[in-house]
Design brief:
heterodimer; A: alpha/beta; Rossmann fold; 2 domains; 4-stranded parallel sheet; two-stranded antiparallel ribbon; about 10% strand; B: alpha/beta; about 15% strand; globular; disordered C terminus; binds iron/sulfur cluster
Chain lengths: ~300, ~130
């Protein structure tokens, strides 16, 4: 989870005055190795920094072939910057120097196996979103919120999203919710066609297919599973039954089984649904007032 | 050690390192092509991950957009990339930004659109573009 990590330092590969350029093949390997471990890299060359280092947000580490004379570098706040001469280093040794500069601070990284947080969360196409707040009402995990400035929808807590669950994209009538790491369009961000809009509206009707709104069904299924669990002696049998009940729902709304299995108690679902509905209604009211005021003035 | 901006195009390359949604051969060939050029560039492991952290570097990049020197973002679908910057409170302006899509275009086409000179080195002088 990213909350427990610190942003990685940005690496500046300095090939400007006073630093000899790397061999092209070595440069490719170094860049790939750093990126695949989660580090952003800026390459600076004579006459062409991609942006001004002084304004950069992240702390940085400088790598260059300085010929043994390592320059003194300070960041915009006057703090000394880690500068490493990689003239004699292999790619692995250069990467190790960057890793050392983190001094063991935890960071999210792509190569950490089970400890990696996959960045999976909804992204809003603001050109399509009408701020109807249906997604906010639907999500049980507080992913959505409302921007205090203009009462529009906002993805407030991306890290709360359940990895690989695109369910809220199915409730958006405008096909405005994207998951960039989804495998197919238009949910991955591909252009939206008229046929997509029609299809997505059909998916919203899944609720009708299930005989009510999806959350009501979730609550009901969860309650059924709970009462069955209390009656049955075998927890395994109860779990199997719950899985069977949820299969239709999971398939229809593309909700991963793990998400359904991890649903909170029916009472908690009830509470969260009410809270989300309250937030959505308040946001809609606030927007209506703001729009009314704008029309009057 | 600050370098001044030149007249070469500005490039931001996204490695999409946390998922396999961008074809590996395309992202490797684009990386190699950029690495063999003489240009300055920005490379990030994963724009999605940075957006989730609301990383201030995205705001820095958006602020630095200059229509006189277009920024080429080599990543994935433009709708998704603009949405990610927006999520990170970094508004990408309409003018001066071209988003190139590694999910839908070949590495050769992408590198041609970025318009960089590829310098000769110890390896091949042209990007490694899969057949
Ligand atoms: S359901 Fe779609 S249109 Fe409605 S607020 Fe959410 S993203 Fe916007
Ligand atoms: S912006 Fe696109 S290419 Fe970059 S990490 Fe996200 S999904 Fe991958």
């Amino acid at each position: 989870m990213i909350a427990a990590t610190v942003p990685p330092p940005r690496v500046v590969l300095y090939e400007g005055a006073g630093s000899a350029p790397l061999d092209p093949g070595e440069r490719t390997r170094l860049l790939a190795a750093l990126l695949d471990r989660g580090y952003a890299v800026t390459r600076a060359v004579p006459g062409g920094a991609a942006r001004d280092d002084a304004s950069a947000a992240a702390a940085f580490v400088v790598l260059g072939r300085f010929g043994g004379t390592v320059p003194d570098v300070h960041d915009a706040a006057g703090r000394p910057v880690h500068v490493h001469d990689i003239g004699m280093s292999t790619v692995d040794e250069a990467v190790a120097l960057v890793e050392e500069s983190r001094a063991g601070r935890p960071m999210n990284r792509p190569d950490a196996g089970a400890a990696t947080w996959k960045p999976w969360f909804p992204v809003i196409d603001t050109a399509r979103c009408t701020n109807c707040m249906q997604c906010l009402s639907f999500c049980l995990f507080d992913v959505y919120g409302v921007s205090p400035a203009d009462h529009t929808l906002r993805v407030e807590n991306p890290a709360n999203c359940k990895v690989n669950c695109p369910a809220c994209s199915r409730v958006c009538p405008e096909v405005a919710i994207m998951f960039p790491k989804y495998h197919a369009g238009p949910i991955d961000g591909a252009p939206v066609s008229d046929a997509d809009v029609h299809r997505e509206k059909m998916k919203v009707d899944i609720s009708a297919l299930l005989g009510g709104d999806i959350l009501a069904k979730l609550r009901e299924r969860s309650a059924e599973a709970k009462s069955r669990f209390s009656k049955e002696r075998s927890a395994d049998a109860a779990l199997a039954e719950r899985r069977r009940c949820l299969t239709k729902l999971a398939d229809a709304a593309a909700i991963p089984r793990e998400v359904l299995d991890a649903l909170p108690t029916p009472e908690e679902i009830e509470r969260r649904t009410a809270e989300a509905a309250r937030k959505a209604a308040a946001a809609r009211d606030a927007r209506e007032h703001a729009t009314g005021r704008a029309v009057q003035s | 050690m600050s370098e001044t901006a030149g007249s070469t195009p500005r490039v931001l390359y996204c490695r999409c390192a946390y998922a396999q949604v961008v074809p590996g051969d395309v992202k490797d060939a684009v990386l190699d092509g950029l690495a063999r050029s003489s240009a300055a560039f920005e490379m990030v492991p994963d724009l999605c991950e940075m957006a989730a952290r609301r990383d201030g570097q995205l705001a820095d990049i958006a602020r630095a957009v200059d229509p006189a020197r277009p920024l080429h973002i080599v990543a994935c679908w433009p709708r998704a990339v603009r949405g990610l910057f927006h999520l990170a409170d970094a508004r990408l302006p309409d003018a001066g930004v071209e988003i190139l899509n590694m999910r839908a275009e070949s590495a050769a086409d992408l590198l041609a659109r970025v318009g960089l000179d590829v310098e000769s080195g110890s390896g091949p002088t042209t990007p490694q573009v899969p057949a």
